[in-house]
Amino acid sequence: LDLQVMDHEAPWQPPRRCEVTPEEAEHAMALAGAAMSHEDFVSAVALWSRAMSTSPTAWQLVKRAECLLRLGHATAAVCDCLSAAELNRNSVKAFKVCAQAMLRLGDWEGALSKIQLANRIDLDEESQALER
User: Fold this and answer.
1) pTM for this predicted structure
2) CA 54, CA 56: separation in Å to the nearest integer?
3) How far apart are the C-alpha atoms of 68 and 4, rounded to whole Å?
4) What tens digit of pLDDT does each residue of 43-65 get?
5) How many Cβ atoms sit within 10 Å of the Cβ of residue 77?
């Protein structure tokens, strides 16, 4: 990624990993979804991080990436999306969110590459529009 573009981005530090029970992680996941629906993305990021403390999934990483992107942390969103894609190579949503974050960072070629990957897995109108 272009370091000059990242210099203009607000810094973000992931929360410290902590010990949580599977029940606490599940509860945090439910609260994270509610926080997202109320557009409380700061709380949602913290809650998704807590939910992932036991065993992160690609879906959880993408959801946190969506929140990070809404908060202006595109680089962190890209990192979460790339981690999600490592866990699930067929995660269309990971590639789409990654492409949006890369666009925000000015990485046009990277964004095009990610959206083309998404389109190879599952072509839809939103992806086609983003590819153009």
Assistant:
1) 0.82
2) 7
3) 19
4) 999 899 889 888 889 999 999 99
5) 28
What's the gap between Cα 11 and its chain centre? 16
Residue tagged 């809650």 (tokens):
47
Q: Could you give the CA distance from residue 109 to residue 91 in angstroms, rounded to a whole number?
A: 20
Tokens coding 62: 């993408």
Q: Tokens 């709380």 map to which residue?
A: 43
Picking from 119, 106, 50, the residue whose alpha carbon sits closest to that of residue 78 is 106
Give the pair of three-digit tokens for residue 3: 């370091």
Collapsing DSSP states into helix, strand and coil, what is residue 52? coil
- Rg, Å, the chain Cα set: 15
Structure tokens at 5: 């573009």
Q: What angle do CA 18, 74, 81 make, to 5 degrees?
A: 65
